[in-house]
C-alpha cells in the first residue's frame, strides 16, 4: 500500500502547490526549538491528511528539516517519518477512526530499549488552514472552519478557499531516550504519550485561534445583565429622571460604541494587504523574544499585551506580528478618536474596542466598559492596550495612565478563571511617519483631529521607512505579582476598590514601563542620531563617526543593558551605510573624504530617535560625565551613580535597582578601559589621550546625558533662589529658565523644556527626600537639596554651569 500512498501524494501535490502558501512558525525553528538535524526525526500530526502532509513537506523544505514523506531508519528498520493521532471523519459520519500510532510508539520504545544510543526526536506539528475561532452558533461558514479531523470533502473546500492562509507550527521535540526512562510497560508509556499529545494539540488550537466568538445577543445579555451595570442603569434612571427602558437603551448604545465585532475575514484580508505594505515601506520587521509568549499561550494564560505607543502604525504592526507568530490576535483598546468612517468599522472588525479619553462623571459608561473588559478577560480573549494612553511625541516613554491596569486588577478580584500575564512590548522604527506633526505639537500647534483625508494623505506619502522593531519583554504573571505585593488580595474579592489597589497599580505601571525599556531594540537611525546630536555642529567625518559607532556597539555588547536588549550584530560601517540609505542625513565630500551631518532644521526631529534608546546610555553617560574634565576615583564615580540613579530611573524607566546600577557602572568602567575610552592614572580614572579614537566616543556619552543633568540643575537653582515654592510655580519657573537657556545657547529641542520631564523630576525629588515639604504643600530647599545641587553642578558642562550661576 506504500506505493498507492506515494501515488496519491504525487497526484495531489501539483494542485496543492498551486493553492497552498505555507507559513512556518517559529521562523527560526531549529534554533528556537533546539532540533538536532543529525538525529532521526518523526513528525506527529493530529489528523491523517494528505494535504496536511504536503503542507508539512513544504514547511520542512523551508526550514531545512528531513522530508516527512521519506521513511526514517531506526535500528535497521524503515519506519514512517510521520505519525497521526486520528483518521479523518467519514463523509457521512462524524465518527473518527483510530490510527496505528499506539503500535508505532510502542515499537519506537522497543527499538530504543535495544539501542540506548538511539535518540528519536518526536516533533508535534499543528497544521492550520485559516484561523477562525469557533462560533457559539453554527452557520454555513462552518463548512470552511478548520476543525479536528475533517472529512476529505470538507478538507477540499478548506484547502480551496483557505490554502493561502496555511500555518504549520512546530513544537519542541520529545526525546525517545527521555520517554523510555518512564517506568512501566512500553504500551502503557505509549498510551500516556498519546494522551499528552492530544492535550498538546487542543491547547495549540486554543492559543492559535483564541476562544469561541460571542454573538451580539449573548454579548448584550452578558454585559447589560451584570449586577454592576443593572445598578448603574437604576442610578442613571433616578438621576436623569428617565424611564428604565431609556436608561437601558443608553447602556446598550454605550456597549455598541465600545464593543469589537471581530471578523476573521478582515484579519486575513489585512494580512495580505499589510504584507504588501510592509514589503513596500520597510526593509524588514525584526521580531525578538516571541517564544516566551507562545509558551504562555500554550500553558493557557490570559495574555494582555502592553506596548509603548510610537505611531498609529503600532495598531497594525503588533497585531500583524502576533498573527504571524502563531498566536490568537488580540482585542485592542483604541481611542474613540479613531472611530471615524471608514477606518472605525474596519478596526472594529479587526478586534478594536473603543474607549473615551475620560470616564469622569459617567457612571453608566464606566460600568458598561468595565463589564465588557471583564467579559473579554473571563472568556480568555487576548487583549492589547497602551499604558501611555497616547503616542509619545518625544520618543521617550510617557508616564503611564493607570486606568486600564486598575480595571485589569479589579477583574482579577472578581475572579478570572485562567492565570493572567501582562506582556510588555517595545516598538521602534527607523522612520516615523507622524514625526513632522509631533514636532509641531511640541512647539504649541494644536493636535490635528484624525480623519479619512488624513489617513489617505499618509498612505500617499508611504516610502522607505527602514526597519521596524518589535521586542517582547519579560512577562509579568499577575497572580504571582499580587501574591508578592499583596498576599491577602484574594480575601478582598468583595471590595470594589480595596485600599491597596492604587499604590499597587502605580507600582505595577512603573514595572511595566521598565520592562518595555528593558527589551529595547537599537536601530541604526537611533544610534547614528545619538552620536551626531552629541557632535559639535551635529557633524562628523565618516571615519570618525564609524569609529564612534563601533565603540558604542561594542560597549552595548560587552556591558549589556539587559539580556533582552537587542543589539545589531554588524559593524559601525555597515550600520551607518544602512542608515544613510534612508536619506535622512546630509552627506558631503571633500578632499579628506565624506562628511555626515544633520540638517539644522531637522536636527530636532532626530532627538526622537535618540530618545528611543536614551535610557541605554544614561548610566554610561553619567560615568563619562563623572570622569570628563579632571577625572575621578572609581569610588567617587560609583557614589555619583548611587545618588543620581534613582532620579534617572524614574525619568527614563530603567529597570535596575540601585545596587544593580552600581554593579553595572563597575562593568561599564571596566569595558570603557578595555575600549580605550578612559584610562587609569594613579588612583584616578581619566579621559583617554586626545589623539585616541576613544576620546570622541567618551565626549558623545557625556554630551548625551548633559541635557538631563542640566534640567536637574535648573530646577535646583530656581529652588535655591526662591527657597520655597509651590510645585506648579517651581515647574513654571524651571520651564521658563529652560526656554531662556535654549535661546542663549542655541539649543533647538522642545523636549528640553517639556513640562512632563520637569514634573517627573520634581516628584522624584520629593520621593527621594531631596527636598522638604511644608504643611501647606510647598516645596522647600534644604541641606540635602544643596548637596544634590552641588553634585549636579559639578557634572554639567562648565559653560552652562557658569550661565546658571549668574542668572
- Given helix and strand content, the structural type is alpha/beta
What is the CATH C level class of the largest domain, in words?
Answer: Alpha Beta
Q: Total domains, how many?
A: 4
Q: Helicity level, as a percent range? A: 40-55%
Number of helices: 32
CATH fold assignment of the largest domain: Glycerol-3-phosphate (1)-acyltransferase
Rg of Cα set:
30 Å
End-to-end separation: 94 Å
Low-confidence stretches: 138-144
Round the mean pLDDT to the nearest integer and report it. 89
Sheet bearing the most strands, described? 8 strands, mixed
CATH architecture of the largest domain: 3-Layer(aba) Sandwich
Written description of the protein model:
The chain has 807 residues and is of the alpha/beta class. It has 4 domains: 2-209, no CATH class; 262-518, Glycerol-3-phosphate (1)-acyltransferase (3-Layer(aba) Sandwich), CATH 3.40.1130; 522-609, Orthogonal Bundle (Arc Repressor Mutant, subunit A); 705-805, Arc Repressor Mutant, subunit A. It has 32 helices and 25 strands. The strands form 6 sheets. Strands 9, 10, 11, 12, 13, 14, 15 and 16 form an 8-stranded mixed β-sheet that branches. Strands 1, 2, 5, 6, 7 and 8 form a 6-stranded mixed β-sheet that branches. Strands 17-19-18 form a 3-stranded antiparallel β-sheet. Strand 18 and strand 19 form a beta hairpin. Helix 10 crosses helix 15, helix 15 (363-379) crosses helix 16 (403-414) and helix 28 crosses helix 29. The chain is globular, with a radius of gyration of 30 Å. The N and C termini lie far apart (94 Å). The model is unreliable at 138-144 (pLDDT under 50).
Amino acid at each position: 500500500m506504500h506505493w498507492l500512498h506515494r501515488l496519491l501524494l504525487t497526484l495531489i501535490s501539483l494542485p496543492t502547490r498551486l493553492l497552498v502558501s505555507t507559513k512556518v512558525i517559529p521562523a527560526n525553528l531549529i534554533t528556537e526549538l533546539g532540533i538536532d538535524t543529525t538525529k532521526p526525526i518523526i513528525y506527529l500530526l493530529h489528523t491523517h491528511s494528505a494535504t496536511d502532509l504536503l503542507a508539512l513537506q513544504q514547511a520542512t523544505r523551508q526550514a531545512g528539516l528531513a522530508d516527512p514523506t521519506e521513511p526514517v531508519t531506526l535500528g535497521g528498520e524503515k519506519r514512517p517519518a510521520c505519525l497521526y493521532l486520528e483518521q479523518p471523519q467519514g463523509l457521512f459520519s462524524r465518527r473518527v477512526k483510530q490510527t496505528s500510532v499506539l503500535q508505532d510508539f510502542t515499537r519506537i520504545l522497543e527499538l530504543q530499549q535495544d539501542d540506548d544510543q538511539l535518540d528519536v526526536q518526536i516533533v508535534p506539528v499543528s497544521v492550520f488552514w485559516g484561523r477562525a475561532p469557533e462560533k457559539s452558533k453554527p452557520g454555513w461558514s462552518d463548512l470552511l472552519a478548520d476543525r479536528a479531523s475533517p472529512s476529505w470533502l470538507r478538507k477540499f473546500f478548506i484547502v480551496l478557499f483557505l490554502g493561502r492562509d496555511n500555518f504549520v507550527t512546530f513544537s519542541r521535540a520529545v526525546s525517545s531516550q527521555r520517554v523510555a526512562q518512564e517506568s512501566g510497560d512500553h504500551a502503557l508509556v505509549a498510551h500516556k504519550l498519546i494522551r499528552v499529545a492530544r492535550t498538546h494539540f487542543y491547547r495549540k488550537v486554543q492559543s492559535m485561534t483564541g476562544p469561541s466568538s460571542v454573538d451580539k445577543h449573548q454579548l448584550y445579555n452578558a454585559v447589560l445583565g451584570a449586577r454592576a451595570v443593572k445598578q448603574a442603569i437604576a442610578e442613571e434612571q433616578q438621576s436623569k429622571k428617565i424611564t428604565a427602558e431609556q436608561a437601558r437603551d443608553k447602556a446598550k448604545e454605550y456597549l455598541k460604541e465600545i464593543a469589537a465585532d471581530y471578523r476573521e475575514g478582515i484579519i486575513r484580508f489585512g494580512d495580505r494587504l499589510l504584507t504588501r505594505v510592509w514589503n513596500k515601506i520597510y526593509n524588514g520587521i525584526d521580531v525578538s523574544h516571541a517564544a516566551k509568549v507562545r509558551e504562555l499561550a500554550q500553558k493557557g494564560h490570559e495574555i494582555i499585551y502592553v506596548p509603548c505607543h510610537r505611531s498609529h502604525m503600532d495598531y497594525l504592526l503588533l497585531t500583524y506580528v502576533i498573527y504571524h507568530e502563531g498566536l490568537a490576535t488580540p482585542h485592542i483598546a483604541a481611542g474613540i478618536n479613531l472611530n471615524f468612517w471608514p477606518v472605525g468599522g474596519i478596526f472594529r472588525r479587526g478586534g478594536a474596542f473603543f474607549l473615551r479619553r475620560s470616564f469622569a462623571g459617567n457612571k453608566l459608561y464606566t460600568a458598561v466598559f468595565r463589564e465588557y473588559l471583564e467579559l473579554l478577560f473571563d472568556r480568555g480573549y487576548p487583549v492589547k492596550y497602551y499604558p501611555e494612553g497616547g503616542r509619545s511625541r518625544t520618543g521617550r516613554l510617557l508616564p503611564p495612565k493607570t486606568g486600564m491596569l486598575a480595571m485589569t486588577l479589579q477583574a482579577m478580584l472578581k475572579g478570572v478563571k485562567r492565570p493572567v500575564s501582562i506582556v510588555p512590548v517595545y516598538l521602534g522604527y527607523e522612520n516615523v511617519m507622524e514625526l513632522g506633526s509631533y514636532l509641531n505639537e511640541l512647539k504649541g500647534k494644536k493636535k490635528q483631529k484624525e480623519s479619512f483625508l488624513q489617513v489617505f494623505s499618509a498612505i500617499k506619502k508611504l516610502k522607505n521607512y527602514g526597519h521596524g522593531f518589535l521586542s517582547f519583554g519579560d512577562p509579568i504573571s499577575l497572580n504571582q505579582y499580587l501574591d508578592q505585593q499583596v498576599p491577602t488580595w484574594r480575601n478582598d474579592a468583595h471590595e470594589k476598590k480595596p485600599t491597596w489597589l492604587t499604590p499597587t497599580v502605580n507600582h505595577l505601571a512603573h514595572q511595566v514601563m521598565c520592562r518595555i525599556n528593558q527589551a529595547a531594540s537599537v536601530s541604526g537611525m537611533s544610534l547614528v542620531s545619538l552620536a551626531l546630536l552629541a557632535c559639535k555642529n551635529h557633524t562628523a567625518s565618516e571615519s570618525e563617526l564609524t569609529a564612534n559607532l563601533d565603540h558604542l556597539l561594542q560597549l552595548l555588547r560587552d556591558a549589556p543593558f539587559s539580556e533582552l536588549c537587542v543589539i545589531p550584530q554588524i559593524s559601525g560601517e555597515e550600520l551607518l551605510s544602512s542608515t544613510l540609505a534612508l536619506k535622512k542625513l546630509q552627506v558631503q565630500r571633500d578632499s579628506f573624504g565624506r562628511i555626515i551631518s544633520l540638517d539644522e532644521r531637522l536636527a530636532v526631529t532626530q532627538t526622537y530617535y535618540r530618545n528611543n534608546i536614551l535610557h541605554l546610555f544614561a548610566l554610561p553617560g553619567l560615568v563619562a560625565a563623572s570622569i570628563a574634565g579632571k577625572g575621578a576615583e572609581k569610588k567617587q564615580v560609583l557614589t555619583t551613580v548611587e545618588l543620581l540613579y534613582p532620579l534617572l530611573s524614574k525619568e527614563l524607566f530603567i529597570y535596575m535597582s540601585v545596587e544593580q546600577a552600581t554593579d553595572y557602572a563597575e562593568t561599564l568602567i571596566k569595558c570603557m578601559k578595555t575600549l580605550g575610552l578612559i584610562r587609569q592614572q594613579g588612583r584616578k580614572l581619566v579621559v583617554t589621550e586626545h589623539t585616541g579614537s576613544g576620546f570622541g566616543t567618551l565626549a558623545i556619552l557625556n554630551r548625551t546625558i548633559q541635557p538631563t543633568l542640566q534640567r536637574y540643575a535648573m530646577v535646583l537653582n530656581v529652588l535655591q533662589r526662591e527657597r520655597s515654592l509651590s510645585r506648579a510655580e517651581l515647574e513654571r519657573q524651571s520651564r521658563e529658565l529652560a526656554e531662556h537657556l535654549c535661546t542663549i545657547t542655541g539649543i533647538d529641542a522642545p523636549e528640553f523644556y517639556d513640562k512632563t520631564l520637569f514634573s517627573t523630576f520634581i516628584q522624584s525629588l520629593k520621593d527621594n527626600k531631596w527636598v522638604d515639604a511644608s504643611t501647606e504643600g510647598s516645596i522647600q530647599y534644604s541641606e540635602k537639596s544643596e548637596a544634590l545641587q552641588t553634585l549636579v553642578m559639578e557634572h554639567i558642562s562648565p559653560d552652562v554651569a557658569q550661565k546658571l550661576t549668574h542668572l
